């Protein structure tokens, strides 16, 4: 089915020796869904012992082409749609009737007649652009567009109920400017070669189309119906193809026959395209459930505008992505240049100095300088001018092989190292002495005063917190370095601790102390 041009059936019949099969011939009638079709083509085929007939049958309404109106209404006259139908079909002997549904304006037609019923339909479609031919058997029905276009709530959703949507945008026939000629005046003078018109021929231009697509001139347009230049202008603008037509084709997986001129919502989410469309043609396969229904949708102005907007939005997104990509490339190039300009050159610490450096770093800090570096170019990130030298510090536990120089007790801060050494020194004890004689029980003590009370009694003035603060001594010397002696079995057997004030503290491992003195009786 195609709007105003085609309404037919096609099918293949298999030879079952029935009367129906043998009745399939040209001009035979076939009925489907209460509509009559006239067989126009049959193609017999014989293959592998199977006989078939391929049949093409056209809706009976197109038999109106057999109606012929030989009379002519001379001149340019004003007609309604009903006037045209009545002029051709009144009194026909083929049983055709007519019906006009909706409201149409009257239009001018020149020299109507001397043509067939099919020409009548073409004349109506070309004169009234909003006319829709949708027959009911031999009842020739002409609908005004808005009287037949209905929104039934159905939609076409790409990747939901259709897997394919094809949009064809074609500017081949684009025309936005023509020169128009109206009705000629009858020549009443002596100069028979001179042609005069009711108005001077002029150019009609669709300015909006020219602004959008640039100028696309078309062939001259002549129409003897018009003596008014304004009416001629309006007619020319209506006939121009001032926007490239948009054809939308899709296949849908849904049951039921589509309805001609049904309004549906078309949505292609990946492209951001959504609009209202009308079904202007379809191919429906009611007896073959494996085949999807093929639908052709209209190219209304609003549909084209939505298509343009979706394309414009897609272009904007692509340009934005390209701009972001270009920015990223420039940033990467700038970063690369800065990295090259700020590159560092280093000299590794000799291997024979690493053990000493590792031990020294273990005590002095948790970072380990292993490389002396030189700045090859100004490095603003580190605030280093070209040519300056510096040492890179790294965490002790992050240096491969460091465990070979110091034991696992080395940690991330000096306080922890100090605590380890203190604990180590605390393990140095002598052998226990001989037990002393038990002492006698002492006298009961008296309730004493707190140290703070004694201090106040001795003349101290201030709060307890101030008194406690006054008891603090000066800060002692900090731990500067430690040198440990390790035997072949990896056991620490001795060493020396050096403080910042220069004092040294020997570390002795597993040595016995002097024998303790005998205890005496207590008081």
TrEMBL record:
Region Disordered, residue ranges: 429-448
UniProt domain Prophage endopeptidase tail N-terminal: residue ranges: 2-59
Record domain Tail spike: where: 62-307
Basic and acidic residues: bias regions: 431-447
A Pfam family per the record: Prophage_tailD1
InterPro entries per the UniProt record, alphabetical: Prophage_tail_N (IPR044051), Tail_dom (IPR010572)
Transmembrane segments: none
Full protein name: Minor structural protein
């Amino acid at each position: 089915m195609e709007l105003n041009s085609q309404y037919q059936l096609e099918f293949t019949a298999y030879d079952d020796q029935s009367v129906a099969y043998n009745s399939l011939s040209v001009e035979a009638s076939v009925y489907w869904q209460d509509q009559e079709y006239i067989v126009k083509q049959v193609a017999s085929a014989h293959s592998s012992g199977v006989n078939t007939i391929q049949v093409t049958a056209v809706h009976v309404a197109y038999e109106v082409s057999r109606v012929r109106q030989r009379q002519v209404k001379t001149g340019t006259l004003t007609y309604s749609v009903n006037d045209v139908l009545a002029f051709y079909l009144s009194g026909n002997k083929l049983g055709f009737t007519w019906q006009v549904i909706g409201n149409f304006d009257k239009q001018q037609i020149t020299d109507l007649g001397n043509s067939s019923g099919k020409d009548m339909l073409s004349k109506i479609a070309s004169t009234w652009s909003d006319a829709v031919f949708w027959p009911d058997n031999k009842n020739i029905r002409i609908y005004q567009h808005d009287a037949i276009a209905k929104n039934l709530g159905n939609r076409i959703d790409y990747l939901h109920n259709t897997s394919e949507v094809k949009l064809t945008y074609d500017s081949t026939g684009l025309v936005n400017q023509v020169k128009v000629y109206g009705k000629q005046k009858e020549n009443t003078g002596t100069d028979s070669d001179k042609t005069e018109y009711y108005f001077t021929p002029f150019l009609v231009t669709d300015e909006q189309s020219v602004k959008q697509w640039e100028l696309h001139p078309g062939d001259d347009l002549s129409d003897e119906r018009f003596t008014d230049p304004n009416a001629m202008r309006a007619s020319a603008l209506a006939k121009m193809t001032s926007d490239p037509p948009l054809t939308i084709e899709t296949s849908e997986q849904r049951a039921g026959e589509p309805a001609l001129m049904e309004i549906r919502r078309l949505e292609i989410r990946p492209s951001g395209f959504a609009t209202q469309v009308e079904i202007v043609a379809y191919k429906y396969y009611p007896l073959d459930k494996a085949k999807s229904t093929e639908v052709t949708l209209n190219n209304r102005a609003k549909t084209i505008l939505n298509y343009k907007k979706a394309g414009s939005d897609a272009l904007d997104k692509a340009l934005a992505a390209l701009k972001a990509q270009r920015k990223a490339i420039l940033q990467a190039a700038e970063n690369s240049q800065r990295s090259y300009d700020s590159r560092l050159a280093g000299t590794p610490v000799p291997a024979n100095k690493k053990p000493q450096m590792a031990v020294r770093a273990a005590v002095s800090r948790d970072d380990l300088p292993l490389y002396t570096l030189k700045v090859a170019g100004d490095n603003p990130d580190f605030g280093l001018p070209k040519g300056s030298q510096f040492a890179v510090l790294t965490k002790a536990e992050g240096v491969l092989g460091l465990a070979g120089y110091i034991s696992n007790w080395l940690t991330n801060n000096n306080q922890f190292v100090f605590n380890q050494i203190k604990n180590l020194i605390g393990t140095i004890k002598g052998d226990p002495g001989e037990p002393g004689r038990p002492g006698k029980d002492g006298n009961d003590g008296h309730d004493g005063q707190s140290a703070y009370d004694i201090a106040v009694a001795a003349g101290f003035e201030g709060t307890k917190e101030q008194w406690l603060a006054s008891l603090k001594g000066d800060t002692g010397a900090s731990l500067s370095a430690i040198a440990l002696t390790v035997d072949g079995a990896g056991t620490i057997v001795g060493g020396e601790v050096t403080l910042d004030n220069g004092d040294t503290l020997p570390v002795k491992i597993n040595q016995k102390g002097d024998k303790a003195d005998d205890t005496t009786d207590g008081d």
